[in-house]
C-alpha cells in the first residue's frame, strides 16, 4: 500500500495570496477564500453525444449526455477585447499586433456596459468601471477580465469565478508610483508643505504657523509589506526613519532582510509616529484604523492611505483629527470617490488627493503594457501572470500537464457514466501517486471534477470554477498525494460516493494517451485507452460473455474495436469494449449484464 504524504480537504476554493494580490486575513497567516452557496446555475447549451446506463437491480434505464468537453484551459481563445477606460495606447497596440480585435468605449453607464459586453471575449478596465455580477452574468463569451493596475475591488471576483472567468491584474505596474506618492504625503505631513504653499498663494508669509518636524529618528509603521510597502520602507529608511510593520503573509525574516521589524498590530500601534497602510480592501481590513485603534496610538500620530478607501474609518479619523489624537492625514483614496462629504478633505490637517497613486506616465504605460502582455501570454499558452482567481492554471502550461488534465477529465467522465443512476454525488477523493505527480494534485483534482460535473443540470464546469460548483452542489472534495507503490510511477486514483454507493477508478498517461488501469475493483489486464467510443459493463465472469456481447452488438450494427477484460475471473467484474459507434439503445444488453454505460471521449 502506498503511504499518503499529504491530505487536504477541499470544500471550496482555497488559496494563499499576497495582500496586494487579492487578500490575506489580518487575523491569520493563511486565508481561505470560500465560495458562497446559492449562486445561480449557469445555462448549459445542448451537448452532443449520448450516454445510456442500465441499473439491472432497479430495472431502470437512464439517459444522460456523455461526451466530455475539454476544460477551458490555456491556451484560451480570446479574439475580441473591450477596453472600457483610458489606458496607455501600447495596450491596444500589443493586443492588435497579436491578432486580437480591440474596441475602446469609455465612460459607459452600467446598462450600456451590460448591453455591450456580450460580444467580447475579454474586458480591460482600470478602477472606474464596476464589473458587477450583473455585468458578468450578461457576458456570454467573456473569458478574462484584465485590471490595468493593482487590486481588483471593482470586480466581483466571486461572480467571475463561478462563471469560469479569469480575473487578472498587474500587481507591479504602479508599485513605484504608489510608493513615491506615499513618501510625498509623509513628507508633506511632516513639514505642512501643501498648507504653506497655499498660504503663500494667498499672499501670506506665516513661518511660525507651519512649524514642522523632522522625519529623522521617527517610527514609521507599515501595515502591509508587499511590493509597495517594501518600496516605501527602503525610501523612508534613507530619511533615518525606523520602520516596523505587520503582514500576515510575508515571513518576518524576509521583511527583516530589508529593514522592517514585524510585530503584531497591538504592539505596532503604540510605537508609531507615522502609519501608512498598503493592504487590499477586504472584510478583515475595513475600518482597520478606527476609534479603538486611534486610542491605542501616540497622541498626534499621522496616517497615510494610498491603498483603498475604507481601510481607515473616515468618521473615526475625523474625530481623531478634531480631538488632536491624530495630528494629520494624507489621503489619496476615499470610501466614495469623489467624496460628497467634504469634512475630511476640508480639514486643515488633511492633505487630500484625487486618487493619484497610479497617475504617472510611467505607471500608466507600465500597467497598460503589462495587462496586454499578460493576456497575450495566456492566449498563446506561454504562462499565466497576475491571475487572482485561477492559480490552478499557473502550472498547466506544458504538454505533460495537458495530458494529465485530459486523464483527469476522462476518469471523471467514466465515473460519472457508471454512477449515473446513483446521483447525487456526496464525496469525491482524488489521490495522485508518484513523485512526478506531486505538483499536479491541484489541477488533477479540478480536472477530475470537470469530468464528473460535465452535463450536470445547469452546470458548465472548467478548471477555474469547478471547485466552487462542487461546493455549491454539496460535494465534499478531498485530495491527497501518495508515494509510488512501485507498480506504476504516475497514477491518478479517484473514488466517488453517490447515494451510498462507492465507485473508484485509477488511470495514468502512457505514450501520451490517458489510460484506465482499474474500475471499481476490476484491474484490467491491458490498460484501456480513454479515447473513442467506449462501452463499460458489469457482469459475472463467463466463457460465453464476450461472444454473447459481440453477437448482440453485431445485430445492432456496431463493431468491436477493442476488448479489455479484468485480470480476475471470478465474481461480478467490469469490462470495457471499444466500439465503432455508440449503441442507440443499451436496453438490449439488459439480459447479459448487470450495469452498463457508454460514452464518447
UniProtKB/TrEMBL annotation:
It catalyses: (2R)-3-phosphoglycerate + NAD(+) = 3-phosphooxypyruvate + NADH + H(+). Residues 27-37 have a biased composition (Polar residues). Signal peptide: none annotated. Residues 1-44 are annotated as: Disordered. Its EC number is 1.1.1.95. Pathway: Amino-acid biosynthesis; L-serine biosynthesis; L-serine from 3-phospho-D-glycerate: step 1/3. The keyword DNA-binding does not apply. It comes from the Eukaryota. Keywords: Acetylation, Amino-acid biosynthesis, NAD, Oxidoreductase, Phosphoprotein, Serine biosynthesis. Residues 81-389 form the D-isomer specific 2-hydroxyacid dehydrogenase catalytic domain. GO terms for biological process: L-serine biosynthetic process. SUPFAM superfamilies: Formate/glycerate dehydrogenase catalytic domain-like, NAD(P)-binding Rossmann-fold domains, Serine metabolism enzymes domain. Pfam families: 2-Hacid_dh, 2-Hacid_dh_C, PGDH_inter. Residues 184-357 form the D-isomer specific 2-hydroxyacid dehydrogenase NAD-binding domain. InterPro entries: ASB_dom_sf (IPR029009), D-isomer_2_OHA_DH_cat_dom (IPR006139), D-isomer_DH_CS1 (IPR029752), D-isomer_DH_NAD-bd (IPR006140), NAD(P)-bd_dom_sf (IPR036291), PGDH (IPR006236), PGDH_ASB_dom (IPR045626). Residues 404-511 form the D-3-phosphoglycerate dehydrogenase ASB domain. GO terms for molecular function: NAD binding; phosphoglycerate dehydrogenase activity. Homotetramer. Belongs to the D-isomer specific 2-hydroxyacid dehydrogenase family. PANTHER family: D-3-PHOSPHOGLYCERATE DEHYDROGENASE (PTHR42938:SF22), FORMATE DEHYDROGENASE 1 (PTHR42938). This is D-3-phosphoglycerate dehydrogenase.
Amino acid at each position: 500500500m502506498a503511504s499518503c504524504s499529504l491530505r487536504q480537504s477541499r470544500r471550496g476554493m482555497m488559496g494563499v495570496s499576497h495582500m496586494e494580490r487579492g487578500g490575506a486575513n489580518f487575523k491569520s497567516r493563511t486565508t481561505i477564500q470560500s465560495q458562497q452557496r446559492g449562486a445561480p446555475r449557469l445555462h448549459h447549451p445542448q451537448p452532443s453525444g449520448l450516454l445510456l446506463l442500465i441499473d439491472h437491480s432497479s430495472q431502470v434505464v437512464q439517459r444522460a449526455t456523455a461526451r466530455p468537453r475539454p476544460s477551458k484551459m490555456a491556451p484560451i481563445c480570446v479574439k475580441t477585447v473591450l477596453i472600457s477606460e483610458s489606458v496607455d495606447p501600447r495596450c491596444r497596440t500589443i493586443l492588435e499586433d497579436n491578432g486580437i480585435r480591440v474596441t475602446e468605449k469609455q465612460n459607459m453607464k452600467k446598462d450600456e456596459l451590460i448591453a455591450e459586453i456580450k460580444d467580447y471575449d475579454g474586458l480591460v478596465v482600470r478602477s472606474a468601471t464596476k464589473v458587477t455580477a450583473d455585468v458578468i452574468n450578461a457576458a456570454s463569451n467573456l473569458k478574462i477580465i484584465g485590471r490595468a493596475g493593482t487590486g481588483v475591488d471593482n470586480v466581483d471576483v466571486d461572480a467571475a469565478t463561478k462563471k469560469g472567468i479569469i480575473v487578472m491584474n498587474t500587481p507591479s505596474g504602479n508599485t513605484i508610483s504608489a510608493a513615491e506618492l506615499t513618501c510625498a504625503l509623509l513628507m508633506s505631513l511632516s513639514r505642512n508643505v501643501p498648507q504653506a504653499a497655499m498660504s503663500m498663494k494667498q499672499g501670506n508669509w506665516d513661518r511660525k504657523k507651519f512649524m514642522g518636524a523632522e522625519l529623522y529618528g521617527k517610527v514609521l509603521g507599515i501595515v502591509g509589506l508587499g511590493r509597495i510597502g517594501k518600496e516605501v520602507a527602503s525610501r523612508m529608511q534613507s530619511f533615518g526613519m525606523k520602520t516596523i510593520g505587520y503582514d500576515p503573509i510575508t515571513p518576518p525574516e524576509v521583511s527583516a532582510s530589508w529593514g522592517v521589524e514585524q510585530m503584531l498590530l497591538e504592539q505596532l500601534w503604540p510605537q508609531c509616529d507615522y502609519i501608512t497602510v498598503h493592504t487590499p480592501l477586504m472584510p478583515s481590513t475595513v475600518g482597520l484604523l478606527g476609534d479603538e485603534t486611534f486610542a491605542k496610538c501616540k497622541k498626534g500620530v499621522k496616517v497615510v492611505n494610498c491603498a483603498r478607501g475604507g481601510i481607515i474609518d473616515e468618521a473615526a479619523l475625523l474625530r481623531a483629527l478634531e480631538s488632536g489624537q491624530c495630528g494629520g492625514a494624507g489621503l489619496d483614496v476615499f470610501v466614495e470617490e469623489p467624496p460628497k462629504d467634504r469634512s475630511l478633505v476640508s480639514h486643515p490637517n488633511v492633505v487630500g488627493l484625487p486618487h493619484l497613486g497610479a497617475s504617472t506616465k510611467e505607471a500608466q504605460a507600465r500597467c497598460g503594457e503589462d495587462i496586454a502582455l499578460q493576456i497575450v501570454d495566456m492566449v498563446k499558452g506561454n504562462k499565466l501572470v497576475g491571475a487572482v482567481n485561477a492559480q490552478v492554471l499557473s502550472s498547466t502550461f506544458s504538454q505533460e500537464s495537458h495530458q494529465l488534465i485530459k486523464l483527469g477529465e476522462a476518469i471523471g467522465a467514466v465515473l460519472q457514466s457508471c454512477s449515473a443512476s446513483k446521483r447525487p454525488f456526496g464525496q469525491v477523493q482524488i489521490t495522485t501517486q508518484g513523485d512526478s505527480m506531486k505538483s499536479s494534485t491541484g489541477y488533477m483534482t479540478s480536472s477530475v471534477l470537470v469530468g464528473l460535473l460535465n452535463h450536470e443540470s445547469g452546470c458548465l464546469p472548467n478548471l477555474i470554477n469547478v471547485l466552487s460548483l462542487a461546493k455549491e452542489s454539496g460535494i465534499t472534495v478531498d485530495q491527497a498525494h501518495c508515494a509510488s507503490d512501485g507498480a506504476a510511477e504516475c497514477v491518478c486514483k479517484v473514488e466517488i460516493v453517490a447515494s451510498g454507493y462507492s465507485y473508484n477508478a485509477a488511470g495514468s498517461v502512457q505514450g501520451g494517451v490517458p489510460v484506465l488501469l482499474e474500475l471499481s475493483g476490476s484491474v484490467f489486464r491491458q490498460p484501456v485507452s480513454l479515447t473513442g467510443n467506449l462501452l463499460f459493463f458489469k457482469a459475472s465472469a463467463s466463457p460465453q460473455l464476450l461472444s454473447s456481447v459481440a453477437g448482440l452488438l453485431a445485430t445492432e450494427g456496431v463493431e468491436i474495436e477493442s476488448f479489455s477484460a479484468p485480470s480476475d475471473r471470478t465474481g461480478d467484474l467490469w469490462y470495457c469494449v471499444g466500439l465503432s459507434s455508440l449503441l442507440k439503445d443499451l436496453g438490449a444488453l439488459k439480459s447479459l449484464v448487470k450495469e452498463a454505460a457508454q460514452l464518447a471521449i
